[in-house]
Amino acid sequence: MKVLVPIKRVIDYNVKVRVKADKTGVEIANVKMSMNPFDEISVEEAVRLKEAGKAEEIIAVSIGVQQCQETIRTALAMGADRGIHIKTDEDIEPLAVAKLLRALVEKESPELVILGKQAIDDDSNQTGQKLAALLGWAQGTFASKIDIQNGKAEITREVDSGLEIIEVNLPAIVTVDLRLNEPRYASLPNIMKAKKKPIDEFSIAELGIDAAPRLEILSVEAPKQREAGVMVDSVASLVDKLKNEARVI
Amino acid sequence: MKTVKKNTSSSIPEGFLQEIHKIVGKNGVITNLSDMAPYLEETRGIFVGSSPAIIRPKDTLQVSKIVAMCFKENIGIVPQGGNTGLCGGSVASGELIVNLERMNEIRSIDAINYTITVDAGCILSDLQKISEENDRFFPLSLGAEGSCQIGGNLSTNAGGTSVLRYGNARELTLGLEVVLSDGRIWNGLTGLRKDNTGYDLKQLFIGAEGTLGIITGAVLKLFPLPLERQTVFVANKDLKSILKLLSLARNCSGDTVSAFEFIPRIGIDLSLKHIPETVDPLKDKHEWYTLIEFESGSSESGLDTIMEMFLNEALINNLIIDGVIAQSEEQRHKLWFIREAMVLAQKPEGASIKNDISVPISKIPEFILRADKAVKKICPGIRPIAFGHIGDGNVHYNLQQPLDLEEESFMSLREALNRLIMDIVQSLGGSFSAEHGIGILKVPQMISYKTKIELELMKLVKDTLDPNNILNPGKIL
């Protein structure tokens, strides 16, 4: 089985994000970038499938600027076999991402596409679902457990009311949740080996996709600052404040 | 636990605390025993202090007035910050405690001059945060940074994990404001990097543990904010290869190594046993590990390539066996957590005798070899945990009790064990207290290992600046 793992380069989870002065977006110049944490989990899961003898080849795909190749190298160091980089300097919306991935799926014919349920930069949570719709494939979203047997995948999903277990036929799209696994560290020998693994490059035009944005960003604003709390000196004054200032009781 | 013996400071005259009250206001004095407890106990529980009251001034003028009154009445004072010291330097034995926690204002930040001027009671981590918000970096970083105060950091000349690149607290200080033992205020708050005008007075107060004056404010150096860090955790076969690795790292990186910490296998084992969420990032077990960090002020400086070239070179020369590179900030935090967890894990594992020594970096392998041999001779089964800032020649040589020995019988060997270790340190030209200071704990070692002339000079300085011996009496000398 061939597995395709789309990964996104995002602002590192631990970086404090700042809005640009002109409010057109957030500051990404001179900011630490890393692999989307949900995608790290999908890479890890793919590598585990390979280690369990259930997958033969893992292809890591990333769409974006030149430096996305660093993110692909991380996936290769974790255990992916080769990379595909769709190079563009534009922001690509989820629908266009899904269309680009469909083009790759048609080229590579994987039986499983496994990706993060969302990226932590725009929190869209759309790419997996849109890709499933475009391909007409089954989908299992928010997976916290994946079990692949005889051309089927049993997927445990984290839903509001608890856990839901579904079975889908392969080929399928699986989007992963936080509790699926703990991603490994890229070991030194594997980082060195990853340098020799191939990364193919494509432009959006080569794949024949219209990736023009459908949305226009009017303005990006920082969240309002919370006001500092006050210490009350008695229960009576707390009750008074709740009643007359906060008006919650 | 031992109760500290009372020093010969006179008792407090009637009405004295009322006068202090008038100076510091209603929240400024604590006399209630249970509220006093956190100011009397120290972190390791080796000493229990006693004090008639905790005085918490709000500004330098209040400190000055309090000290002037104590000077007049000959009343001893223990200046105190976050009370996180490891040698009992902030433990009172009947003296008044003057705690500076309410003096916690950032007085000013001058981004162009790369300086910040602060009250002594500012918490270290707050200072780091505010510097960062101003696109600047204050490099002092240590385990207690969430509660220790900058005044205490300066008074103990704190070290920590970034000494290799940025120096210890002394090297980060440009100016000080100090209340002298008679209550006068010396304002030396200059932000000058060059100022050769006579004796450099601030140096006297840094590392003096509050025995020469009370530091109330400071001007500190700031640096450009590091925007990229490369953090690796590698396995090494022996200490000699770790030393070679250090010099290779400094060479390959253009000296951007900001941390170089070594960890023994037993440290990892104890962490895995006692501290949840610790992971061993490598597949196999190894004798020694190092945590190495490179730092750069630009995110496009190619630091990742430099790190990989260094590691490649190290692999070829057999200086490392295996290793991982942090791929995100999250992974970086997890690698550092291994280093921190090792310190926490020593407590649940039983009694531990802690040593904080330094020797020339090149002598570290010899020190550990000789010390291990010596301590095992008089205490079979003892488990030495040698770790720390190898880049600074600073080894935390901690001794964990044998599994089959009572805690008490182990602790009874303490002085004999320490004596052995310190003699080896001395013979290698090292220091018996690298970054933790003297306090009460290491006063006996001062007498054994400092030369007569050093002790005489120190006494001379002390008698001149504190003729009535009211400032932190009984500490250091």
Structure explained in plain terms:
The complex is a heterodimer of chains A (249) and B (477). Chain A has 249 residues and is an alpha/beta fold. Chain A has one domain (2-244): Rossmann fold (3-Layer(aba) Sandwich). Chain A has helices spanning 37-51, 68-78, 94-108, 127-135, 188-194, 235-244, and strands spanning 2-6, 9-11, 33-35, 57-64, 82-87, 112-116, 138-149, 152-159, 162-169, 172-176, 186-187, 199-203. In chain A, the strands form 2 sheets. A 9-stranded mixed sheet of chain A has the order 9-8-7-10-6-1-4-5-12, with helices on both faces. Chain A has a two-stranded antiparallel sheet with strand order 2-3. In chain A, β7 (138-149) and β8 form a beta hairpin. In chain A, α2 crosses α5 (188-194). The N and C termini of chain A lie far apart (60 Å). Chain B is of the alpha+beta class. Chain B folds into 4 domains: 2-102, Uridine Diphospho-n-acetylenolpyruvylglucosamine Reductase, domain 2, CATH 3.30.43; 106-224, Uridine Diphospho-n-acetylenolpyruvylglucosamine Reductase, domain 3 (2-Layer Sandwich), CATH 3.30.465; 228-344, Alpha-Beta Plaits (2-Layer Sandwich), CATH 3.30.70; 352-452, Alpha-Beta Plaits. Helix content of chain B is 34%, strand content 21%. Chain B contains 16 helices and 21 strands. Chain B has helices at 16-24, 33-40, 60-73, 124-133, 150-155, 163-166, 202-205, 239-252, 265-274, 303-316, 329-344, 364-378, 407-411, 414-427, 443-449, 452-465, and strands spanning 2-3, 29-30, 47-48, 54-55, 77-80, 96-99, 106-110, 115-119, 136-137, 173-179, 185-188, 214-221, 223-224, 228-236, 257-264, 288-296, 322-325, 352-353, 356-358, 383-389, 394-400. In chain B, β7 and β8 (115-119) form a beta hairpin. In chain B, α12 packs antiparallel against α14. Chain B starts with a strand and ends in a 12-residue tail after the last helix. In chain B, 48% of the residues are buried. The interface between A and B is medium-sized, with 22 and 29 residues. β11 (186-187) of chain A pairs antiparallel with β17 (322-325) of chain B.
